[in-house]
Write a structure and sequence with these properties.
This protein is α/β, with parallel strands linked by helices. 56% of the residues lie in helices and 15% in strands. It has a four-stranded parallel sheet with strand order 1-6-7-8, sandwiched between helices. A four-stranded mixed sheet has the order 3-4-2-5, with helices on both faces. Helix 8 links the parallel strand 6 and strand 7. The protein is elongated, with a radius of gyration of 22 Å. The structure holds adenosine-5'-triphosphate and magnesium ion (MG).
């Protein structure tokens, strides 16, 4: 997964990585950012379904609508049976429940989990929304899991009230799903944290990599993206000062983290060109990564 502050290059580097891996085996690139820009990078609408845009590379931008449609398909009937056995409600209760915090997040992750289990792809590259939502996403998993354990106890106390419906099986299904998602994040996922060579993104990358580590998610390293090359405009005072400032934050980052730090220069050129994207990936990925 690629994570980090807004606008630091997550999507660009996720696309570059996906292209790199697609040369080594079937690869799926998925964005769970509701305002994702993979479609712009690859110049087409990628929101409908997984589309093979280059040999070996399929891409999908998950939208809220798509995720909630999957949720309905999987759980709406069961939920309606359970809730309507308690209260006199119509099916519009489903619209109400799907707005609950965590549902959308849970089913975005369910999509990744299902893709992983299907085994059609050798590599799954995940482009995420900026930091706050990824931390929220991790927290929701743990909260959801704890909540479902309480829900089971509550159900056992109210057992007699559910006429014929079986909420326990629903709770258990959700609990299994959450446990599998937590497992996927802890054992099958590795994160690249992306930052710009400036104070706030570097500080955020440091705390984000710590938070991922606390959760138990492997951090591959921190990518400092858009670093000015030494030879850029030697006579330009502004760029020279900017470069010194960036070097200071590069050194600070290296001092304060134990993770590998990879530097990617600021590129002038068409970042939508696959050759250019591949050259970016080669700057931080090595064989066996
Ligand atoms: N190494 C680079 N050199 C020059 N421009 C870059 C580089 N990396 C990314 N960019 C440009 O920076 C902008 C932001 O990149 P990108 O959309 O990948 O960031 P993001 O972290 O995914 O943003 P968001 O948080 O909005 O999803 C884009 O215009 C992209 O083309
Ligand atoms: Mg992005």
């Amino acid at each position: 997964m690629f994570t980090g502050k807004g606008g630091v290059g997550k999507t660009t580097l996720a696309a570059a990585t996906a292209l790199y891996f697609s040369l080594r085996g079937p690869t799926l690139l998925v964005s769970t950012d509701p305002t994702g820009s993979l479609g712009q990078i690859f110049g087409r609408n990628l929101q409908e379904r997984e589309q093979e845009i280059y040999p070996g590379l399929s891409v999908l931008e998950l939208t809220r609508e798509k995720v909630l449609a999957l949720w309905r398909e999987k759980f709406a009937d069961d939920i309606y049976t359970v809730v309507s056995s308690l209260f006199p409600v119509g099916r519009e209760i489903i619209d109400y429940i799907e707005g609950a915090p965590g549902i959308e997040t849970e089913f975005m992750l369910d999509y990744l989990l299902t893709a992983l289990k299907r085994g059609d792809y050798r590599y799954l590259i995940w482009d995420t929304a900026p930091t706050a939502s990824i931390l929220n996403l991790l927290k929701v998993q743990l909260l959801f899991y704890a909540h479902l354990s309480q829900a089971q106890r509550l159900y056992l106390r109210l057992k007699g009230l559910f006429q014929g419906a079986d909420p326990l099986s629903l709770i258990k299904q959700w609990q299994t799903l959450t446990a599998e998602i937590i497992h996927m994040l802890k054992t099958d996922t590795a994160a690249w944290v992306v930052a710009h060579p400036e104070q706030l993104p570097v500080r955020e990358a440091l705390s984000l990599s710590q938070a991922l580590d606390d959760f138990g998610l492997e951090v591959k390293g921190i990518i400092l993206n858009k670093v000015l090359d030494a030879e850029v405009c030697p006579d330009c005072l502004f760029l020279e000062e900017k470069r010194k400032y960036q070097q200071f934050w590069l050194e600070t980052l290296c001092k304060e983290t134990t993770y590998p730090v990879k530097v990617i220069p600021e590129i002038v050129g068409d970042l939508h060109n696959p050759e250019v994207l591949l050259s970016l990936a080669q700057m931080f990925l090595t064989e066996g990564t």
